[in-house]
């Protein structure tokens, strides 16, 4: 009997294989042997990623009156990263295996050991390098590569990516690839206040790439060095911070379950211990999803206090306080940050939607994606590709529907094979034009989840699908 962890790693392997087979995610630079922990989104992956991002933007920005959008550059004045503390505090505890020279992140290895032995994270003191090193010994953590337990001491490793600007390489030209997207929002906060009618409480939202020179990269697109983030910096009166933090926890959870269709019992909140928290936070809650390897972080809500604005005010010499237009009260706002990794959320959605089922016609693999984020909404088939009448009616219906919906036309192989393919892409509906269609102007509409087929008049299709997709 295979044990649970074998089954779970088999599921991950199958999901990764499906991603490549069906054009969701490819290994980067594959013809050159790939590139460590770097992936590219294929035709269906890019649609799914865009749908997640658009859904977030509509829900969190367009449907609210207190959140404004922003898109800042990846390159910033290096002083930003000095003020934010990233050049000094943005470090990972690095440790080497003396036997095989594997380089690992000590804290992640400890977390992993706690997860497998089902021990509470609170049983370990993460506050210092010495304490984490002690935990490595106490938990008898072995090298994941060679199995030996012969570790070096832990040292700090800064994960900001450095690069150079200009034609002459030199110390003065060092710039950084942004380690987080939040700083762009902090340094534009004053411009937004001055150029819009924003009043506290209000938020700034942006999504984009961030870069971290991670020591440990693993689990497909879960932890990579280049990744997509989506977050809001929500500026509040300091005393209202706890209440707003709760509000955003609820909002983020609802978005994952209601808009992305992730099962509620596969998600939970975990409060980070003070030792785990980032240097800027005085309270962080991780939203964790039950991945095949266990609960792991997909998003978080943090109370960043006035840490960032205070540091930027000090280092830039620009007054960043806010004056309430009614009470004239003057203060530095606190910031509540609901954030999530888009790539992780993409993987969360795939894991939650992925199912292997036994049906009357044998095994099938299906992605039961929420209808509103599925990369393809409808697929249109002629029953046979060598019957011009069927093909021409199917093409006519396809041309009409694709004005309104994301559609695909498929006349390859038999209908059964086309269903299997659309099931694996997660297409909610398939329409088949058959010989009856030529006389009575009806088609078969097949539901992905129930596999039930219903006859429907061509004239009613648009109305019907308008109701299925919001
Ligand atoms: Zn080793």
From TrEMBL:
Q: Which CDD domains match?
A: GlyRS-like_core (cd00774), GlyRS_anticodon (cd00858)
Coiled coil located at which positions?
Answer: none
Asked whether the keyword Aminoacyl-tRNA synthetase is assigned, the reply is yes
Chain residues that bind substrate: 105, 180, 337-341
**Annotated ATP binding sites:** 212-214, 222-227, 297-298, 341-344
Q: Which terms in the GO cellular component ontology are assigned? A: cytoplasm; extracellular exosome; microvesicle
PROSITE patterns the record matches: AA_TRNA_LIGASE_II
Q: Which UniProt keywords apply?
A: Aminoacyl-tRNA synthetase, ATP-binding, Cytoplasm, Ligase, Nucleotide-binding, Protein biosynthesis
Q: Which residues form the signal peptide?
A: none
GO MF, one annotated term: bis(5'-nucleosyl)-tetraphosphatase (asymmetrical) activity
Residue ranges of every copy of the Aminoacyl-transfer RNA synthetases class-II family profile domain listed in the record: 14-382
Q: Which family does it belong to?
A: Belongs to the class-II aminoacyl-tRNA synthetase family.
The name under which this protein is listed is Glycine--tRNA ligase
Name of the gene this protein is made from: glyQS
């Amino acid at each position: 009997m295979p044990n649970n962890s074998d089954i779970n790693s088999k599921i991950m392997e199958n999901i990764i294989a499906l991603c490549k087979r069906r054009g969701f995610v490819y290994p980067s630079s594959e013809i050159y042997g790939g590139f460590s922990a770097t992936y590219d989104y294929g035709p269906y992956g890019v649609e799914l990623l865009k749908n997640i991002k658009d859904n977030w933007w509509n829900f969190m920005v367009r449907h609210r009156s207190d959140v404004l959008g922003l898109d800042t550059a990846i390159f910033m004045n290096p002083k930003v990263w000095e003020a934010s503390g990233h050049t000094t505090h943005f470090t990972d505890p690095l440790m080497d295996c003396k036997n095989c020279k594997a380089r690992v992140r000590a804290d992640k290895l400890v977390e992993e050991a706690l997860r497998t032995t089902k021990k509470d994270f609170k049983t370990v003191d993460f506050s210092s390098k010495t304490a984490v090193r002690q935990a490595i010994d106490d938990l008898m953590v072995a090298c994941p590569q060679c199995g030996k337990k012969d570790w070096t001491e832990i040292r700090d490793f800064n994960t900001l990516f450095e690069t150079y600007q200009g034609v002459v390489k030199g110390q003065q030209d060092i710039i950084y690839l942004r380690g987080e997207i939040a700083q762009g929002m902090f340094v534009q906060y004053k411009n937004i206040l001055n150029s819009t009618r924003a009043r506290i409480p209000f938020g700034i939202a942006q999504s984009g790439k961030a870069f971290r020179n991670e020591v440990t990269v693993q689990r497909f697109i879960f932890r990579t060095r280049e990744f997509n983030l989506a977050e809001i910096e929500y500026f509040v009166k300091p005393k209202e911070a706890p209440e707003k933090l709760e509000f955003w926890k609820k909002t983020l959870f609802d978005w994952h379950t209601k808009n992305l269709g992730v099962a509620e019992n596969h998600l939970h909140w975990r409060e980070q211990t003070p030792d785990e928290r980032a240097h800027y936070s005085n309270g962080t809650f991780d939203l964790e999803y039950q991945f095949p390897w266990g609960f792991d972080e997909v998003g978080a809500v943090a109370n960043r206090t006035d840490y960032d604005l205070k540091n930027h005010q000090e280092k830039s010499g620009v007054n960043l306080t806010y004056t309430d237009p009614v009470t004239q009260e003057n203060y530095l706002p606190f910031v509540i940050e609901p954030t999530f990794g888009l790539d992780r959320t993409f993987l969360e959605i795939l894991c939650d939607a992925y199912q292997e089922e036994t049906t009357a016609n044998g095994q099938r693999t299906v992605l039961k994606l929420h209808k509103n984020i599925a990369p393809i909404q409808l697929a249109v088939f002629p029953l046979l590709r060598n019957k011009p009448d069927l093909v021409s009616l199917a093409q006519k219906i396809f041309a009409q529907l694709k004005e309104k919906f994301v559609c695909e036309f498929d006349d390859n192989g038999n209908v059964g094979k086309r269903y299997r393919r659309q099931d694996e892409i997660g297409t909610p509906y398939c329409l088949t034009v058959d010989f009856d269609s030529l006389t009575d102007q009806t088609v078969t509409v097949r539901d992905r989840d129930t596999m039930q087929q219903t006859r429907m008049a061509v004239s009613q299709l648009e109305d019907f699908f308008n109701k299925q997709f919001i």
